Amino acid sequence: MPLRIGAIPIDFPVGLGALAGYSDLPYRLICRSLGVPYCVTEAMLDRQVLLEGKLRKRLIRLDPADHPVAGQIMGTEPEVMAEAARSLDGMGFDIIDLNFACPVRKVVSHKRGGALMNDPDRALAIVRAVVEAVPGRPVTVKLRRSFRDADKTHEVFWTIARGAFEAGVAAIAVHARSVEQKYTGRADWGFLAALKREFPDRTILGSGDVTSPADALRMLDETGVDGVLAARGAIGNPWFFEQTRDLAAGRPPRKPGLDEQRDVIYRHFRLACEAYDPQRGLKILRHFSLQYAKMHPRRTDLRNALVAVRTEEQWRAVIDAFYSGPQ
Predict the structure, then answer these.
(1) 290 within a domain of the structure (yes/no)
(2) What is the mean pLDDT of residues 239-247?
(3) Domain boundary at 229, 248, 267, which?
(4) Residue 58's CATH number
(5) Which member of 31, 39, 102, 273 is catalytic?
(6) Is the pTM of this model over 0.85?
(7) How crowded is the C-beta side of 152, counted as CA atoms within 13 Å?
(8) Residue 253 CB neighbour total at 10 angstroms
(9) Which of 248, 275, 305 is the last residue of a domain?
(10) Total structural domains in the chain?
(11) Residue range 306-311: average pLDDT?
(12) Which of 104, 209, 216, 307, CA to CA, is 20 to 30 A from 51?
């Protein structure tokens, strides 16, 4: 079940979607080592991409093992978005992804992200400017099905989707909720199926309620989308993609033992320390460990122990205690 985004081949149609605070380079590298074929970065503000400094260095990181990868940008001005896209193109990102979907209030209030689902003229001006700025580089657009949940005609969505394809985007990725819904309620997979029927010859990626490897395959089967982006469902389970490949091949999904889980957590910690610094690496892994705990047989006890952690020594003691020996 290969997938293509423009001229970029992707050997399996389930990738890691963008998620702020989670889909950074260290976690992408962990997922790469466990079978993910394609990743999208955290959303980056266009002006941060263009601003030399610590924030840019922290946000924009590439690694030879992290390809193909899409650099995702957010903004409101076509010229600035185009300049940011040129910058990412020059750095070697394989795909440029435009975020018109983020439902976070702070983002929407600044007219970025999901706010573009209310402003099709501006959204399409951005698309045209970016496509023109990076000839030969695939451009993708992340959308939601509408801005308001009550919008049943999805008129703005169809305007943006058609206009984006006419402008030359290689694919659109759609989270099947409204911006207003954020992450509540059910994602409307029926909308994804209708979208694929409308654009049978275009590349459509789906997301929303992909909480397990079986969900990813079910979305492919039920909606006909060309690919799936898992985000929240894959956080804390980097084995998600390997397990999805197992299921697709008719094998039972491999479940990692506690020793392997511990090794991956420690490797993630080392990568985070290398990418940032030990203090920030510990902060990230304290937060991430609560997600890894979802797979642990004593998840509640582990989470309670992790919440009390303040130092690296305390964190290591908890990890070693819970991930060693019989549980």
Answers:
(1) yes
(2) 98
(3) 248
(4) 3.20.20.70
(5) 102
(6) yes
(7) 1
(8) 15
(9) 248
(10) 2
(11) 95
(12) 104
